[in-house]
Design goal:
The protein is mostly helical. It has one helix spanning 54-106. Helix content is 50%, strand content 0%. The longest helix is centred in the C-terminal third of the chain and has 53 residues, at 54-106. The chain is flat and about 100 Å long.
């Protein structure tokens, strides 16, 4: 009942063909083609460059500061939650220990 049952390998059904033999082939290098001459560089794409005005720079700094403050507040609150949980577990352990110790002294 508690012995593991090892599955058996199923036997192939139908016609089984032997493995095919692979013959090595030789690689013939292609004929040498002449190198093309120098090509004129393509014109640069006409994309507008991004220019930072004082207003956009101030907005970026303000947004980055807000993100840092929010992430910091979340991390500090998580650390505080862990610390409070640890302290409450420690208090519960001390209370239980004292209850058990006082019960054994009464006997």
């Amino acid at each position: 009942m508690f012995r593991p049952k090892i599955p058996t390998m199923p036997t192939p059904t139908g016609q089984v063909s032997p493995p095919a033999v692979v013959e090595p082939t030789t690689i013939v290098p292609p004929a040498q083609t002449p190198q093309p001459g120098p090509v004129a560089p393509a014109p640069a794409p006409s994309r507008p460059t991004v220019q930072l005005t004082p207003g956009t720079a101030l907005a970026l700094v303000g947004g980055g500061t807000a993100v840092v403050l929010v992430v910091g507040a979340v991390l500090v609150s998580m650390l505080l939650a862990v610390a409070i949980t640890g302290a409450s577990v420690a208090v519960c352990a001390v209370v239980l220990r004292s209850l058990l110790a006082s019960e054994t002294k009464r006997r």
